[in-house]
Amino acid sequence: MKGSEKPDDMEKTARFLGLSVSRLERLLEKGLLSRNWGNYTNFFRFETSVSGIERGSVLLQKSDGKLDFILGFPKIQRAMLLGPSINNHFSEIDKLIVEEKMNGYNVRVIENAGKLIAFTRSGHICPYSTEKVNYLLNTSFFRQYPDLVVHGEMAGPENPYVSKKVYDTQTLDFFVFDIRHKKTGQPLQVRQRRELAASFGFKQVPFLGEFARKEAAEKIMQIIKKLGEMGHEGVVIKDLDMDLAPIKYTCSQSNCADLEHAFKFYNEVGRDYLYSRVVREGFQTVEWDEDEETMDQRCLRLGRSIISPMADSVRKVGSGEKLYDEVTLRFQSPQTLQEFEEYFRRLGIDAIFDRVGYSGGELMVNLQKLNQSTTDKTEAMWEGNLW
Q1: Which helix (H) or strand (E) is 308 found in, with range?
Q2: Would you say residue 17 lies in a domain?
Q3: Verdict on whether the full-model pTM lies above 0.85
């Protein structure tokens, strides 16, 4: 391994992480702890969970030789049957808080060297997200609370990962859903977090109610039905003190929207992703005690979300078209665009960036993310190859 790929002081770093030097060496050699690139070579990200360290956690090597650590965001487990899950998971809790689960992408924000940095769930530093948070968020928060990490959902139509037009934003916005202590990952209590975020003018995920545990399932079912009609994703259920891990629950319409997008590019997406969303529908229709007509509507919605986009893709490839995702993005700086193009290249994302001009002083770019695997597979079928 090249020396430049290692932290400057291996023994100090190993002690800081609670690992042996030999274990740290192996992680680096196997690429399970990777140095970032570009302007952020002093950051190392964990590509897998190690000894209690979450995947996506980040090690920061400061210019003064000190080390810092940003824990990855823990995966939120899902309720398949709402009532039983609530009663089992929150059995000792009397009151629950429900917040909206917004459909975007998860980032963690800290300040380093006077600028905000946005980490994706995997621990990468996204140049596009980093540029956004530097003018969307009140930076004085991070100077006042340097040991806190702000967790948020970046949602809206100008989203390079999950473009959604169902929220009250025309571009891309940041919605706080958690604030945690940097090194321990300990979350602030819900009310404390919402009050603190509001005091700095941060937008937050919608607060949907506080309910007694015994009535929570029925109330949340009503909320889910309304969110589904709006095309929103679902809810996150939390205890007020955040002593227990939250759980999530999603709308049928969100499951089907995910499937609709996934089956458009059927050869790119893992089967677990597809299968899990179909299974959710089966559990939900039983718990909601749907009559035959309502279940038929669910079956039709589910079937259409699978067959219609796939059929459309087959027709397009058959007529000589290529398959791609398309979204318009705006950049404050051409330099950020260059960094974002390099970021996509390093992640192995095949994309075309087309500059279309300026609007309101921002550079407008049309992004096409190519889905070559599905295109090639479908072309092979049209050529008479066998599956």
Answers
A1: helix 292-318
A2: yes
A3: yes
